[in-house]
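Action item from last week, closing it out:
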Amino acid sequence: MRILLVTLVLAAAGTLAVDLQPAGTPRAEATAAAVRAPQAAVTQPRTVEIALLRYGRLVRVERELPRGAQPALHALRELAKGPTLAERKRGLRTALVPGLRPRFVRVQGDVFLVRVSQALVAPASGTTLERRLAQIGATLRWLGTAQTHAAIAVDGRLVTTLRLGSRPGMPRLQEGEGGYPYSVRGLQLRLWTIGFLDRSDVTGSLDYRTSQALLAFQGWEGLAKTGTVTGRTQVELFKATRPKPRSHGGSGRRIEIHRDRGVLLVVEDGTVVRAVHTSTGAGGATPAGTFRVYRKERMSWSVPFQVWMPYAAYFRGGIAMHEYPVVPPYPASHGCVRLPAGEAERIYRFVEIGTPVTVF
């Protein structure tokens, strides 16, 4: 009775949907809320739990973890095997197709990097594909580690990013270069986890802010700046890490502007909180060096060029970081640091009078 009460409380807490099993159900089919009695360490086998399906609902099933095996990779390989014959007789199924091969699982901060074979995206209905991703996400979540997201790649190219602990929803895959698919929402989540996009900009649409984030990412990684999802971009997105500042300014806020990459880094306490696409001065008109913000104007008027410059933060003479309607993937200004709409206001609010600005 105590186990049943705890099970009901945990189920009400609202994680992934699971079945509630009667007391006589074999332990191998323990559900999401199962509570195990403590046993002596010498007799308790090490296990992982994989996510199988019964009538579309996720069910926890235990698999033994061999000594020395990597838990995440072993769990996904066990998941790929599907239910045993005995489990199939009890109604357990899988949406994953035979031939799925988990290649590796690595940890990058709070993100799992998961590479699998093309069988993951074998032709299927949206519902079936959603269940495949849900099984993978739940299996990783049930490891009980600190990771909150999983970037999923097929043959090294990013397909999507899952938020662990929630159903992925009906995926809408776009066809990328070479026929490798990708989810726009999953791509946006990946850009967010490495600092190139805001969480509120994860919309599932390839909009202006996403294209600007892609330009920043491509510039930072030294890729062709297209603002679109190229095959090389899919490869680099999967394995990329958050940018690191070049200067060592200790605590506090500062800005780094990398002219050769066309990227502005927003740095706080030594960590890059955002990486933003920018266009600096043509022909090196934006000088290198370390400066400080000395004036801020919500709407600044450029006398020599007769143009309004929203969210202007000046750091040397008449040179400012400001919003501009056209931010091309190459240096194009008279010296100012052009910023996309939305990003300029964010940076304007981030900096204060005296904030260091280093131009490389």
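Closing note: The longest strand covers residues 307-316.
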